[in-house]
Amino acid sequence: MSTLCWNGVGLTTPEDWEPSALERDGFVLARGDMPLCELKWRVVHGSFSFKKHLKRLSKGNKGAEMRPLPESETPKSWAQAVGKLEQTGLLAGSFFWKGPGHDGMGAMLHNPATGLAVLAQFFIRGQHDLDIASEVLSSFRDHTNGKTVPWTMFGLTARVPSNFVLDTFSFKPGHYRVSYWLPATKKGERLPPGKGKGVSLVFDRYAPASVFLKGTSLEAWVTDNMDGAPKSGNGIESGEKKVMWDVVEKTSLLRRILRREVYNRGRVWIVDDENTVLGVHARGSIAAPADQFNGICESYGIV
After folding, report:
1. Checking phi first, is residue 262 left (phi over 0); if not, alpha (psi -120 to 50) or beta?
2. CATH 3.40.1000.10 residue ranges in the chain?
3. What percentage of the chain carries pLDDT values higher than 70?
4. Which of 43, 47, 196, 231 sits most deeply, having the most CB atoms within 10 A of its CB?
């Protein structure tokens, strides 16, 4: 089994379940081209009605039959999974769905302590699928209320301070990048992630390292190619397998007078046994505290 954590939620799944679609607040898991599970979530302010959300879900899935699943019709393994979740403080409601060529089980979950509302749907093709789906459902975790929030996706794992929000992400062959954002806004002011003053926290992964670093040093490659890294010699400390920096970027006199400096702290290192380069950098109008940044770097690795 393997664990997936993304933007505040976590699941433990069979090793061959892989993300086939990924959004900020949702993902689809599949085995090859066969969909197995879809998860969507958001924070709901105020009360939560399972009946209203199931009705809304039914309207959005025309051609699919959806109905609440009474306790008398709930399979034993599924009922046990729901019971385990309820023991953790979650409220849960189960439903059955049937679409063209697909049958499935679903659950709507709500955590009154955090406001997190989750829609979990599983594609069921037989008893074995039902048993596995029940086991996966029982593993669901709400990570939104901790001091740090884990993310584990596509073989990478890290922990991020909970006041950062997920901004952008890209998982392309050779280069993975996940970016978080901490706004420096006035109390009550809301801006989209990445907008206004604040600091971006970026995780990078490059592989294979032997290809990226062929004929060059790690420092030269980082300063020439890595978006967000300072130019060579500008406050960089480097060794054979690690590059670090902590600088205030050069800017205009006016920006300095207005205290609009850009702080940039980063670390890039080689993971030899994985033939991979990992990097973390924090850049913006807020200086990342050294202890916090070091903790983030230490949490970042390959699983």
Report:
1. beta
2. 2-142, 148-302
3. 90
4. 196
